[in-house]
Each structure stands twice: as structure tokens, then as C-alpha cells.
Design a protein that fits this description.
Blueprint (H helix, E strand, L loop, with lengths): L3 E3 L3 H32 L4 H26 L2 E5 L2 E5 L4 E2 L1
Antiparallel strand pairs: 1-2, 2-3, 3-4
Amino acid sequence: MIRLDVGLPRSRWFALLGCLLPCLVLAELVLAAISVMFIGWEAGMEVPGVLFLVFLVVANSIVAVSLARHYGNAFWLDGRVLIRRSVTGRRH
């Protein structure tokens, strides 16, 4: 039986979650450390530190929504049944 599959293959998910995500987390830890240094450094540097932290929260939200959207864009035919993968489960 031929399986028609639309979506990111396993190798691409491995690259996204196994290689890109740890690098992203490391960069975010460096930015968080810099923002904490700004907050505790001088009296006038709290605003840039808080802005860095807000930027980190927004960036993490965008990455999470993007990964969930790409994960939910997988469809395949299993015989005559179309299966859609989503974050909450599979729909037939």
C-alpha cells in the first residue's frame, strides 16, 4: 500500500528539535544573563534589562507557536482515511 504523506519528515524534525532548539536555548540564556546584569547594574539600566526579558518571552512564544503550527500541518492517507496530526492528537 502506498502512503501519501504531507508534512515535515522525521529528519527535519530532528534538525529542528535536536540541533536548532539547543542553540536557541543557549542564545536565550546569554540574553537573559545580560538582561539580569542590566537590571542589577546601575539605576538607569532597568528599562533595557526589562525590554530584553520581554523580547525573550515574545521570541519564545513565536517559536512555540511556529513549531506547533508546523507539527499540525501533517496529513497522510492511510487507505481511504485521511489522518491529520495536531498538538492535541490525531483526527481521522
